[in-house]
Write a structure and sequence with these properties.
Layout: H1 8-34, H2 47-61, H3 64-73, H4 79-113, H5 120-139, E1 148-150, E2 157-159, H6 166-197, H7 201-208, H8 216-224, H9 233-236, H10 239-274, H11 281-297, H12 300-307
Antiparallel strand pairs: 1-2
Helix pairs in contact: 1-2, 1-3, 1-11, 2-4, 2-5, 2-11, 4-5, 4-6, 4-10, 6-10, 8-10, 10-11
Length: 310
């Protein structure tokens, strides 16, 4: 094969980007139209957060033409500036998606336990705050704290996690702790508190009597349990079921978010520990593939919930 021809891995990366990007755009466009149908399930004004989350996930996959073109022709539109722009856009949307998913869970906790009903402007403020924080994380590498470059897999411009200088390592550590672990940990804790609040009356009596222990595994099973069994509208609109389903909806959103970005976090942690090991390019590429797939399939977190409300 001549040097001007892309090898099989680059062709695969290009086709994969096109397929995942197309599916993601299709699913998210459907989600924008159908998400309003959970109006009867969530607090009305909180739909703002769900729309912004859908937009952030869509932003992760919508740039697939740039990734596909680079994988095939080994160049970005607008050259170096195009590379930086692609990386900043993906980083902004990715970090914002994580923050919005966690914000939905934390706000849900206070809606259930405190009866809070924020105004629409307040929800917009929370959403814009998440976008602002995501953008700050994304521009720091442009200011010399970390950096963007063509990844070891040579298929996209992304955050350079292979550098071992002090600033890059500190940035990766801060990003892992403050951008992922703390928000996700807070969201999981919030969901556990919310779930404990809406247990059935009989279980509540057992809790008061000290006869019901809510284990972490039981809590996680309840959160990610599919809602496919809720098919009748009269069941779905039962107030007690609505609270349970709101918990599960938030849990499924967080579950998809964790699955989407956890591999990238594990990879970054391993790179920090082993200090730029001589790994195969696929070790770097697979977590990015999973992040794209997870962002594209994020609307599935809503699909089972919508069955009971359409």
């Amino acid at each position: 094969m001549s040097n001007n021809e892309p090898d099989g891995a680059f062709v695969f990366a290009s086709l994969f980007s096109v397929i995942v990007g197309s599916i993601g755009i299709w699913l998210h466009s459907l989600n924008f139209k159908s998400i309003r149908k959970i109006d009867a399930l969530v607090i009305h004004n909180s739909l703002v957060l769900h729309y912004h989350l859908t937009l952030a996930n869509l932003g992760v996959v919508v740039a697939f033409p740039f990734r596909s073109i680079y994988a095939l022709f080994n160049r970005f539109c607008l050259g170096t500036y195009g590379c930086q722009l692609y990386a900043v856009e993906g980083m902004t949307c990715g970090m914002t998606a994580i923050l919005l998913a966690c914000t939905i869970c934390i706000v849900h906790r206070f809606e259930v336990t405190k009866g809070w009903k924020l105004t629409r402007a307040s929800y917009h403020g929370l959403a814009m705050g998440a976008w602002a924080v995501g953008f700050i994380w994304a521009v720091l590498p442009l200011l010399g704290i970390g950096s963007y470059s063509i990844g070891p897999h040579q298929t996209a411009c992304t955050l350079d996690i292979s550098r071992s200088d002090r600033k890059s390592l500190v940035f990766l550590l801060a990003l892992t702790i403050f951008g992922y672990l703390i928000p996700v940990g807070s969201a999981i804790l919030s969901l556990r508190v919310a779930w404990s609040t809406v247990v059935s009356s009989s279980d509540r009596e057992k809790c008061i009597a000290g006869k019901l222990d809510v284990t972490l595994m039981e809590f996680l099973v309840q959160l990610v349990q599919p809602l496919w069994f809720v098919t009748r509208k009269e069941e779905a609109r039962n107030p007690k079921n609505k609270l349970t389903e709101r918990n599960r909806l938030a849990g499924q959103i967080l579950f998809f978010t964790c699955l989407t970005w956890l591999p990238m976090g594990v990879l970054a942690t391993c790179v920090m520990i082993f200090q730029n090991p001589n790994w195969s390019r696929w070790i770097y590429y697979v977590p990015q593939l999973l992040a794209k797939v997870g962002s594209a399939l994020a609307p599935l977190a809503y699909s089972s919930t919508l069955r009971g409300y359409v």
